[in-house]
Each structure stands twice: as structure tokens, then as C-alpha cells.
Specification:
The chain has four domains: about 70-350, Aconitase, domain 3 (2-Layer Sandwich), CATH 3.30.499; about 355-385 and about 440-620, Aconitase, domain 3 (2-Layer Sandwich), CATH 3.30.499.10; about 675-690 and about 780-909, Aconitase, domain 4 (Alpha-Beta Barrel), CATH 3.20.19.10; about 695-735, no CATH class. It contains 31 helices and 34 strands. It has about 900 residues and is of the alpha/beta class. α30 (about 885-895) crosses α31. About 35% of the residues lie in helices and about 20% in strands. Strands 26-29-30-31-34-33-32 form a seven-stranded mixed beta barrel. Strands 4-3-2-7-8 form a five-stranded parallel β-sheet, with helices on both faces. The protein is globular, with a radius of gyration of 27 Å.
């Protein structure tokens, strides 16, 4: 019998409402609105929208007040900086700074900063941690201050795990008790892979840091009431396949279906055989599917996982009792109405990878060799040469005095280092301890990384067993492959060590390099110098293999153009052969010391072997031991000195942490919106421009705008660190916005972060171009194609755009999170008329752009006028839709952003 108050869905059902037909995810949203109904921010209309949920879709907005917020440090640091900046402005205006705190619990996990500088040795972890603290001391001091200076915020120190795996294994409660109420555990997170928690029956998704900060400060999050796609799973995963093969296949299916902005809910008898970690593997890749969530309802599998991960019996009983009482328990016999049903028979799965630059580009393992040939020809205009027929175009010697690159001379090209050939590139590297040949398709990074897979014991134990069998056959990883193992929690290390498989992985140089996201987010670290030089000089197209969830261009490593996602087990296998232009199902991986061929089937474990090892190696006590001390940190964290007190003291000389300028001298009332007159195009972009292209991410050099800024502050190149580590300094971040080396701006021939200052026709960096326009007082716009802003929920993709002076983005379509973030920063998202694009309308990016219809009667989805004037005087006019999708969007836009709106609400009290 429930002893807490509940917002009863059963009572709605008994009153004649047909709640039984609603998807579980919609029921949770309904409970949220029912419980938080106040007649003002959350109204009867919102309640009616959900009670009478329309499977066909609606343009009506609904509010959502999550139970908590999850952050990682890359997005968490700017969020803490923003809230601390709001507190500072509030104090300057005479307010009590202690009133500015998170209104709901916030868990911030430091997992995005560790980089793989050292690998393949027993000291790799210690050295990487040492460098992590050296590079991030100022950021970590801010976070350590926040843990005591901001109420309702906890910080998980570095080296404890990846936020989503920590969330799955420890933070998630299933059902929350608070203020006399019991209600579903829900959250939003500042990382796009937050939906991983859907695998344990907790509804949550990724939002921009901007939205998350508003939720932290007690504001509802508004979004369009979603359609719900039913994903029906039948059968079970066959022997020889993994949960990773399953999720990559689902990625392809759902991308082809088109689920952007929709919920996906999983049902069918296939769920009965899927563990919570299998389910979480699927949910983790919701952003790659394009959907907001991939929800698995709570059932017996959920409670079994909670018990095995050391949740208390009291908590487990609460989850069972509440869900069964309030129509949130899955029995498998539900008759739910979905917007559409997509089916997958799990028994049809085959070993799969995805790449080379999109997660949805599924390739069967037995077809990767043929696909590589096609990709090499199509994308790089090179003819494939069979492995045994290759001749080196150059060789690389590493001597005692350094590295020398020598090109084989030809009659035509005797004086140049450039390789002039249409054939596959191949370079022989001679070292003091041996030599080897690198070619197009050589694997230079093999990373067991990402909570997508490291949270799943079946594939981690599986990878260890592959390693064990390979070692027993006398095999070793290829010497040119940079190997790494980055578990998502220390529980993984415990069961790998207990099973003895950690030793086998280390024998193949898969040593633990850190407990964080590493290569999955681009923290692969530098390649060995001789390999990096060979790639640059020969322009080889090398590859990475990783158990991550993203493989966009330049994400894993700027020198690696092909990136393939796969299970940890396949990562080990491909590291043994060292190249992707093979058919791993038929070609030998290598040869044992006696000359016998060793094939994948010879080292692949059976499901029984994997399950038996899991049963023997995993213990409930490991979760207790790891998570009892989760907030304590290691010795480095304990001895880290940090400020104390209610106000953070800003250091104006810091190149890591600066007070943001968004709130300085903020007026108590917003200024009325104005039309955009005679704006210039800063960038003209194509389709599928991701937030990785827009937002500063990864490393940068001394020639970049950000690099020049740091040099001017006395920071040496070796101490630049990454953009992500400097997200707390807007000066660095605005200079790195649109600075991705692979971004293609159609108004200039230069690849990378360049634009044109049209008054003088100078080609400059995007930052320098924007600053010249800022001096002129010229507003800026961005033109783009489909799916603008897809990818991770990077708030700096919007913040940086705002600081550069971008007033509007005109695109064919937007990814959900980035559209919301643009509005949250006071930037207007505009959609071209259906079926039209910048190209079809005849725009070149050289025009002056005026946008009217903003100054009066601004409302959701308003049609506005865009006028583009060419230098010749020719005018192109068209109507377009302002993607302000709700009344609250309009209010945020009028205030110049969501945080300005929140601060003004505090000032008005």
C-alpha cells in the first residue's frame, strides 16, 4: 500500500479516460503534468493534450519538470559558470546570492577530460590522470567550490566513471520519494546520450546546457507533444552476434524510418531476453537514431538489474509497488496505440560495423572489404590495390636525431614531397626496433571506449575472452595500432580482474587508460610522432575502430578520416589484423608462431562461455564498494585546493574560467524585438552539419583564432589543452565556434573555419570575419541545409554563435536540441519553405539579408519575410517559418535567451 501521495493515472482511467491505450512514455509525461499542474505554467490544456494524446501528432506544446539533472564536466563547467555569473549579477543588483541555487538535484560527473596520451603500458592510467589534473586544475577548482558553494549539487570527481554508466548503475532510482510524494524518476542531461537511462525504465533525454540550467532553476521545459514510434522486437540475438550488432542495426532502421523529434518505445517478446544492459545499449544511441528517447518500460528485468547493482530492497519494492499501482508496469500483454510500428526480428542479426563517418551507415563485417574499396574510390578518388600487390610510395626512417620522411623519386616528381598518384597510398616506416607498412585502411586507433558498450558485461567479458583466446594462439596486436581500454565504471575493472581477463587484454596492450569517455568524444590523444608524420606527408586515409556511438568526421582524431563503430569484441579482433580492408569472417587474423592461420571463429567465445564468466566474475558487493566512495575522489582530488564560501571569486587572468558577458548590466525589462536589416551571411553550409562542426571540440593549433588568443596570454602550445576543457572561458570558445577543420563554408574555397568579409572580399577565419562585421554593426545570419545541428547537445554551438553576432539561422530543417538551444540564446531559427533550399532559391551567400515580421505580433510558428539583395541589385524574396515553437519560446527570444528570462524573473520577485 502506497504511503506517499501519487498523481494517480489509475484514477484517470477509472474516471473514463482511456489511459490503457497510451504508451508508457506518454503516461509518465501525463503524471508529470498532473502532479505539477498549477493553472499557470502547467494548465488544463496541457493535461488535455496528454490525456487525449494524438498518435498522429500535434503541434501542441507540453511542459516537463524533471526530477533531477545529470551533467558531465564539459557541459557542466559552463553551466556552473552561468549560474555563478547569474548569482554575481543578482548580487550586484542587490539580491541575496544564496537564493541562486539549483532548485532540483543536480549530479555532475567529471568524465570528459581524461585524454589518452599514454597507452599500452602498466603506467598509462597513472600518467594520464596526472596530465588530466595538470591541464584542468582551474576547472576542477571551480567544480570543487560548486559542491560546497551551490546547494543541491553533487560532483563525482575524475576517475570514477562515465556519467551515463554511473547513472545506470547508481544514480537512477526508478521511483523518487520527495516532499511527501512518490513519482517516476525522470531527468534531463547535458549530454545527448542521456537517454541511455531509458534502458532501466527512467525517462530522460539530452537537452542543451541552456535548457538544463533553466530546469535546474525551477523552470519547466516545453516541447512539442511527441509521436511515439513502437519498436517491436521479436526473437533473440543469435550466437556470434552482440548487443552492439543489434544497436547498429536498429540505428539504420530508425534513421531510415525517420524518428527525429519523436519518442521510440520498445515492446514485443524480444524484451524478455534482453537484459537492462542490452536495453541501455540500445537507448544510449537514441541521438544516432534521431529520436528523443528510446524507452523500455519497467518490468522484472529492471528489478533484477537493480538488485544485482546493490539497490536496496526498500527501493526495489517501492519501484514495483508504485509502477504496478500507477499503470507503469510492463506485463507484455498491453494493447497500446503507437504512431507507427517498426519491427526487428533479432534472430536475423549479423556481425555489423558502422561507418566510416555516420553511425547509421551500417556495414556487415563480411562486406567491409568491398565497402572500403567503394569508399576509397568515391570519397578519395583512389584506386584500391590488393594488399600483396602494394608498393611503398615513400618510407619513414626514425633515427637517433629525429624522424626523416623520404619520398621515392620518380622522373616526373623528383623535386616534390607530394605523392602524385591515384592509387592507394602506402608508406614503409622503419624504426630502431623494426619496420612495418602503413596504407590506406590501416587501423591506427583501436579503442574500447564509451558507456554504450562498457556498461554491458556481455561485450566487455566477451572482449576479454577474445583477447584470452588470441593470446593463447600466440597472436598480438599490430605495432602501429594505438590501443586503449576506458571502462565506464570501476566495477568493470573489478570483474575483468576477478576473471583474469584484464591480464589477457593487457597482453594485447589494451591497458586501462582512464575512466572516462576518451576516444568516443575525441580525446584519443596524439598518435605516435612517426605515424602522425607519415599520415600527414602521404595523405593516407587511415582508420579507427572503436566501441563508441559517434564517428563523425574529425571527431575521433583529426588525422583519422575513416572511423568504424563496432563491439568491443570486434575492436580487439581488428586490432590483431591492423586494417579494415579485410573480410574478417573469412580472412585470417594472423598466423600463430607455427605458421598456422588463425581465424575469427577460432577466438570467438560462445554465449555460454560469456554468461558463465559473467556469473563467476560479477558480484553485487563490487557495486557497493565502488559507489560507497563515489563522491570522495582519489588523492589528487582530495588534495586539490579550491575556493570556499558563497561567492566565487573570478580571476581575470584565468584562461579557463571567466564570468560570461551574457548578464552584465542586464536591464530589468527586455527591449522589444527588432527586424533584422542588411545582415551578412557568415556561413553558407550544406546538409547534416553537426554540433561537432559548429561547436569548439577537440584540440586546436597555434594558427587558429583560439590558439593565437592563448599565445597572446602567454600560454604555450603544449598547454593549450582542448576546447572542451576551456568551455568555461567564452573568449576561447567564441574563437573556436565554426573552426572545425572539416567544415565546408560555400562562400569560400578554403576548407575549415573560414569565411569572407564581403566589404573587402578578404578570406579570414570565421571569428575574425565576425569581429570585423561587429565593428561595422552588421548583424549576421547562417544559411544551412537539412538537419542543422544534429549530434551532441553542445550548448556552445549556440552560445558561440550568439557571441559571434549571429541573429538568425535559416535552414531546411533543425535537429531538436540545437533548435531549442538557438532560441535559448536569442537566435532565431528559420526554416526555408517546404521543398526549397538556399540553392534552389538562387542564394549564393553573398547577398545582404533582411528579415521582417519580428517587431510585432510575434507568435509560435509565425511566417516571416526574408529578402536577399545581391550586389547587382537583384532581389530574392520568400516567406519562411520562424521556428519559435511555443509561447515560451517566443518569451525566451524576446528576453534574449532563457537564462536572461530566468534572471529577470528572480529580479522581479
Amino acid at each position: 500500500m502506497m504511503t506517499h501521495k501519487i498523481a494517480s493515472l489509475k484514477e484517470l482511467q477509472e474516471s473514463g479516460k482511456n489511459i490503457h491505450r497510451l504508451p508508457f512514455s506518454i503516461r509518465i509525461l501525463l503524471e508529470n503534468v498532473l502532479r505539477n499542474h498549477d493553472g499557470f505554467a502547467i494548465t488544463d490544456d496541457h493535461l488535455d493534450t496528454l490525456v487525449n494524446w494524438d498518435a498522429a501528432g500535434t503541434d501542441k506544446d507540453i511542459p516537463f519538470k524533471p526530477a533531477r539533472v545529470l551533467m558531465q564536466d564539459f557541459t557542466g563547467v559552463p553551466a556552473v559558470v552561468d549560474i555563478t555569473s547569474i548569482r554575481a549579477e543578482f548580487v550586484r543588483k542587490g539580491g541575496d546570492g544564496t537564493k541562486i541555487n539549483p532548485a532540483i538535484p543536480v549530479d555532475l560527473v567529471i568524465d570528459h577530460s581524461v585524454q589518452v596520451d599514454y597507452f599500452g603500458t602498466d603506467y598509462s592510467y597513472q600518467e594520464n590522470v596526472k596530465l588530466e589534473y595538470e591541464r584542468n586544475a582551474e576547472r576542477y577548482q571551480l567544480l570543487k567550490w560548486a559542491q560546497q558553494g551551490l546547494a543541491n549539487l553533487t560532483v563525482v570527481p575524475p576517475g570514477m566513471g562515465i556519467c551515463h554508466q554511473v547513472n545506470l548503475e547508481y544514480l537512477a532510482k526508478g521511483v523518487v520519494k520527495r516532499d511527501g510524494w512518490a513519482f517516476p524518476d525522470t531527468l534531463v542531461g547535458t549530454d545527448s546520450h542521456t537517454p541511455m537511462i531509458n534502458g532501466i525504465g527512467v525517462l530522460g533525454w539530452g537537452v542543451g546546457g541552456i535548457e538544463a540550467e533553466a530546469a535546474m532553476l525551477g523552470q519547466p521545459i516545453y516541447f512539442t507533444c511527441p509521436q511515439v514510434i513502437g519498436l517491436k522486437l521479436t526473437g533473440e540475438i543469435p550466437a556470434g552476434c552482440t548487443a552492439t550488432d543489434m544497436v547498429l542495426s536498429i540505428t539504420k532502421i530508425l534513421r531510415d524510418t525517420g524518428v527525429v523529434g519523436k519518442f521510440v518505445e520498445v515492446f514485443g517478446d524480444g524484451l524478455d531476453k534482453l537484459t537492462v544492459t542490452d536495453r541501455a545499449t540500445i537507448s544510449n544511441m537514441s541521438p544516432e537514431f534521431g529520436c528523443t528517447v528510446t524507452y523500455f518500460p519497467i518490468d522484472d528485468q529492471t528489478l533484477d538489474y537493480m538488485e544485482r547493482t546493490n539497490r536496496s530492497s526498500e527501493q526495489i519494492n517501492l519501484v514495483r509497488e508504485y509502477c504496478q499501482e500507477n499503470m507503469l508496469w510492463r506485463t507484455g500483454s498491453e494493447d497500446i496505440e503507437y504512431s507507427r510500428i517498426v519491427e526487428l526480428d533479432l534472430s536475423t542479426l549479423e556481425p555489423t560495423v558502422a561507418g566510416p563517418k555516420r553511425p547509421q551507415d551500417k556495414i556487415l563485417v563480411n562486406e567491409l572489404h568491398a565497402s572500403f574499396k567503394t569508399i576509397l574510390d568515391k570519397d578519395f578518388q583512389r584506386n584500391y590495390v590488393a594488399f600483396d600487390d602494394r608498393r611503398e610510395h615513400a618510407w619513414l626512417n626514425e633515427g637517433g636525431s629525429g624522424t626523416q620522411y623520404v619520398q621515392k623519386a620518380t622522373d616526373e616528381h623528383r623535386e616534390t614531397l607530394a605523392i602524385e598518384t591515384d592509387d592507394l597510398r602506402s608508406v614503409k616506416i622503419k624504426l630502431k626496433n623494426g619496420e612495418y607498412r602503413l596504407s590506406d585502411g590501416s587501423i591506427v586507433i583501436a579503442a574500447i571506449t564509451s558507456c554504450t558498450n562498457t556498461s554491458n558485461p556481455s561485450v566487455m567479458i566477451g572482449a576479454g575472452l577474445v583477447a584470452k583466446k588470441a593470446v593463447e594462439k600466440g597472436l598480438r596486436t599490430r605495432s602501429w595500432v594505438k590501443t586503449s581500454l576506458a571502462p565506464g565504471s570501476k566495477v568493470v575493472t573489478k570483474y575483468l580482474e576477478r576473471s583474469g581477463l584484464a591480464t589477457d587484454l593487457e597482453a594485447l596492450r589494451f591497458h586501462t587508460v582512464g575512466y572516462g569517455c576518451t576516444s568516443c568524444i575525441g580525446n584519443s590523444g596524439p598518435l605516435p610522432t612517426h605515424i602522425a608524420e607519415a599520415i600527414d606527408k602521404s595523405e593516407m586515409v587511415v582508420a579507427s575502430v572503436l566501441s563508441g556511438n559517434r564517428n563523425f568526421e574529425a571527431r575521433v582524431h583529426p588525422q583519422v578520416k575513416m572511423n568504424f563503430l563496432m563491439s568491443p569484441m570486434l575492436v580487439v579482433a581488428y586490432a590483431l589484423i591492423g586494417r579494415v580492408d579485410v573480410n574478417l569472417m573469412e580472412d585470417p587474423l594472423s598466423y600463430d608462431p607455427n605458421g598456422n592461420a588463425v581465424y575469427l571463429k577460432d577466438i570467438w567465445p560462445t554465449p555460454d562461455e560469456i554468461n558463465r564468466t559473467i556469473k563467476e566474475a560479477m558480484r553485487k558487493e563490487d557495486f557497493k564498494e565502488v559507489y560507497d566512495v563515489i563522491f570522495d575522489g582519489d588523492e589528487e582530488w582530495k588534495k586539490l585546493e579550491a575556493p570556499e564560501g558563497e561567492e566565487f571569486i573570478w580571476d581575470n587572468d584565468s584562461t579557463y574560467i571567466r564570468e560570461v558577458p551574457f548578464f552584465n548590466d542586464l536591464s530589468t525589462e527586455p527591449l522589444p524585438p527588432t527586424e533584422i536589416e542588411r545582415a551578412r551571411v557568415l556561413l553558407y553550409l550544406g546538409d547534416s552539419v553537426t554540433t561537432d562542426h559548429i561547436s569548439p571540440a577537440g584540440s586546436f593549433n597555434e594558427e587558429s583564432a583560439a590558439g593565437k588568443y592563448l599565445l597572446s596570454k602567454g600560454i604555450e602550445k603544449k598547454d593549450f589543452n582542448s576546447y572542451g576543457s576551456r568551455r568555461g572561458n567564452h573568449e576561447v570558445m567564441m574563437r573556436g565556434t565554426f573552426a572545425n577543420v572539416r567544415i565546408r563554408n560555400k562562400i569560400t574555397d578554403r576548407e575549415g573555419g573560414y569565411s569572407v568579409y564581403f566589404p573587402t572580399n578578404e578570406t579570414l577565419t570565421v571569428y575574425d570575419t565576425a569581429m570585423k562585421y561587429k565593428v561595422d554593426g552588421t548583424p549576421l545570419v547562417v544559411l544551412a541545409g537539412k538537419d542543422y545541428g544534429s549530434g551532441s547537445s553542445r550548448d556552445w554551438a549556440a552560445k558561440g554563435s550568439s557571441l559571434l553576432g549571429v541573429r538568425a539561422v535559416i535552414a531546411e530543417s533543425f535537429e531538436r536540441i540545437h533548435r531549442s538551444n538557438l532560441v535559448g540564446m536569442g537566435i532565431l531559427p528559420i526554416e526555408f519553405p517546404r521543398g526549397e533550399s538556399a540553392e534552389s532559391l538562387g542564394l549564393t551567400g553573398e547577398e545582404e539579408i533582411s528579415i521582417t515580421g519580428l517587431a510585432s505580433d510575434l507568435k509560435p510558428f509565425k511566417m516571416i519575410k526574408v529578402r536577399a539583395t545581391k550586389a547587382s541589385g537583384e532581389v530574392i524574396e520568400f516567406d519562411a517559418r520562424a521556428r519559435l515553437d511555443s509561447a515560451i519560446d517566443v518569451a525566451y527570444f524576446k528576453h534574449g535567451g532563457i537564462l536572461q528570462y530566468v534572471l529577470r524573473s528572480y529580479l522581479s520577485r
